[in-house]
Every structure is written in structure tokens, then in C-alpha cells.
Amino acid sequence: MAKLAPLIAPSILSADLARLGEDVERVLAAGADLIHFDVMDNHYVPNLTFGPALCEALRRYGITAPIDVHLMVEPVDALAQAFARAGASYITFHPEATRHIDRSLQAIRDAGCKAGLVFNPATPLDCLKYVLDKVDMVLLMSVNPGFGGQSFIPSALDKLAEARALIDASGRPIRLEIDGGVKIDNIRAIAAAGADTFVAGSAIFGTRDYAATIAAMRAEIAKAS
Ligand SMILES: O=C(CO)[C@@H](O)[C@H](O)COP(=O)(O)O
Ligand SMILES: [Fe+2]
Questions:
Q1: Domain for residue 207, yes or no?
Q2: Quick one: which residues bind a divalent metal cation (predicted)?
Q3: What is the pTM of this model?
Q4: Average pLDDT for residues 102-123, to the nearest whole number?
Q5: 136 annotated as belonging to a binding site for a ligand
Q6: Measured from the CB, is residue 52 less than 6 Å from ligand 1?
Q7: 31, 108, 160, 218: which could form a disulfide with 194 (CB 3.0–4.6 Å)?
Q8: Residue 96 located in a structural domain
Q9: CATH code of the domain in which 96 resides
Q10: Mean pLDDT calculated for residue range 90-100
Q11: Which residue's C-alpha comes closest to atom 10 of ligand 1?
């Protein structure tokens, strides 16, 4: 199966939270493809962010782009269902945060969303091979989860190649997303290692000209192929 078209997913963790609707509209107008929505519970990770009410508010505000909900919560299932009702498009969770990985994935898909698993930098991909028929996205963390603005952990490049091989062997259109420390100056190597979906928080929202930053990222990604 041919590699999927690259998608840029700005993380709203670094957006102007007091003007979130406007900032999300701006970044979409600047060329972003999906909105990465980081959900932290101060339990699975040592930080606290957004719940389903904010996702629903973005939909009510008029955001129609796909919303990519990254759950950093434990347990997973009830919140996943609440985000499905709130208008999420993708819902990904960390496998160690649920007792029944297969059941949690299936429940997200039954609720009409695309489902995915997220792997921390030092978490092996072991369980992935058993659920390749039930995932629409594999998200590799290239920082330890909990905060924006951290540096990319280089070992994520080898892990991307490992995940890419598993996905290609599955023959299914599974997205391979990378999250953490993605910048203009490393995105080419990240794309070459196999990623097709690129989360970037501080690298986009920390710049004045979102369109120029996203265009520069796309140009670097194109050089990788
Ligand atoms: O999930 C997380 C952090 O836990 C990420 O989505 C960050 O929000 C990415 O931020 P940058 O590293 O791109 O600034
Ligand atoms: Fe994230």
C-alpha cells in the first residue's frame, strides 16, 4: 500500500487558549490538516488540560476539520466515549492505561471514530501486532507525555521504522503519527523514518506566521520522499 498523504496536526496545547476558536481557525486557514487535542488528567500524566466540553465547544464554534484526540488519561473507556459524543474524529490512547486494549479500540470504532494506540518513548510496540486490524492510527511519542515544548528523543526514529514495517505488512491504511519536539529542522528525518502524520505544538503556535511554518514543514517532508 502506498504511503498516505502527509498531514500536519497542530497541538492546541500551545495555542492561545483564551482565544482558542479563533486560533484554531487561523491555523486551519494556514494549511493545517487536523487539530491535535491533548487530554491530560493529572493521573496518567502530571498535567491537566481539556475535557470533552471543549471539544464540543470547538464543534459548536464551527470547526469542521478532523479533531485528533490524544488521551493521556487512566482509565480510558468512559472518556473515550464522551469524546466520541463531543465530536472527536480520531481517538488514541496509551495501551498501559486500559485493562482491555482490544475492547477499548473496538468501543471507539463502534462509537463512529477512528481508533489508535499511543506508545511512549520507552514502551515497546509488542501489543500492536495483535490489534493491527482494529487501529486506524499508531502514534509514537518522541517526548515523555505531559508537556509541550520538549526536545525530540532521537531513538523515536528507529521506532518509527519499526512501526512503519508493521503497518506496511498489515496492508491497511493506518496512519503513523509522531508527537513531541517536531520542528522544521528535524521533520525531514522524521518523514524519512516513516511518519506520515506530524503533530507540532510549539513549532507552529510559537511562530507569528503559521502559514510560512506549515509550508516550510511540508517542503521538508517532500524532500524525504
Ligand atoms: O502530547 C503531547 C505532550 O504530551 C504533545 O502533543 C505536545 O503538545 C507536543 O508539543 P510540542 O513538543 O510540539 O511543543
Ligand atoms: Fe499529543
A1: yes
A2: 36, 38, 70, 179
A3: 0.98
A4: 98
A5: no
A6: no
A7: 160
A8: yes
A9: 3.20.20.70
A10: 98
A11: 148
Number of compact structural domains in the chain = 1
pLDDT on residue 130 = 98
Distance, CA 50 to ligand 1 centroid (Å)?
14
The letter for the amino acid at 14 is S
The ligand that comes nearest to the alpha carbon of residue 146 is: 1
Residue 225 is predicted with a pLDDT of: 83
Asked casually if ipTM beats, i.e. exceeds, 0.90, the reply is yes
Could you tell me if 1 and 173 are in contact, meaning their C-beta atoms sit under 8 angstroms apart? Answer: yes
Residue 85 has pLDDT above 80, yes or no: yes
Span from the CA of 62 to the centroid of ligand 2 (angstroms): 22
Annotated catalytic residues are 38, 179
Q: Is the CB of 75 under 6 A from ligand 1?
A: no
- Whole-number Å distance between alpha carbons of 177 and 42: 24
Residues 6+ apart with CB under 8 A from 167: 132, 138, 174, 176
- What percent of the chain has pLDDT above 90? 98
201 marked as binding residue: yes
- Angstrom distance (rounded) from CA 217 to CA 196: 12
Distance between CA atoms of residues 142 and 140, nearest Å: 6
Annotated binding-site residue? 70: yes
